[in-house]
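thread: overnight batch results

M.L. [08:02]
morning all. the overnight job finished for the chain we discussed friday. pasting input first so we're all looking at the same thing
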Amino acid sequence: MKKTQFYILGFSALMLCDTLTQISFKLASNHGGEFAMQLEWFISIFSQPWIYGAVLGYLGSFIAWMTLLKHAPVGPAFAASHLEVVLVLVVSAVYFGDRLAPMQIVGAFLIVLGIVCLSFSEADKENVEAH
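M.L. [08:03]
and the structure it wrote out:
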């Protein structure tokens, strides 16, 4: 597998697992009610199937992240790992009907732009080292 394909697959898996985790937490909390330090609340939360989606999402994220870190430079990898913030924002707007403020849209755009800039600078660095 080519390095580029590996990165695309790995970061896609990381982003999807992280997004699954956050959306699962949201759905579990919607069904679990307001937090209360009582046994009934914990039973309510852990009886929701979505909480197990969150656990699986965390496990998938951990595996994807550890695999990526073995092969990818940590700076760009860490930056790209934050794409899930943008994806969660989009999914919450589409699926939950959350309204996006103009500053949230600008912030999401800047996150993506920063990651693109880092990926190009890393690609340039690899090209220079190869020659």
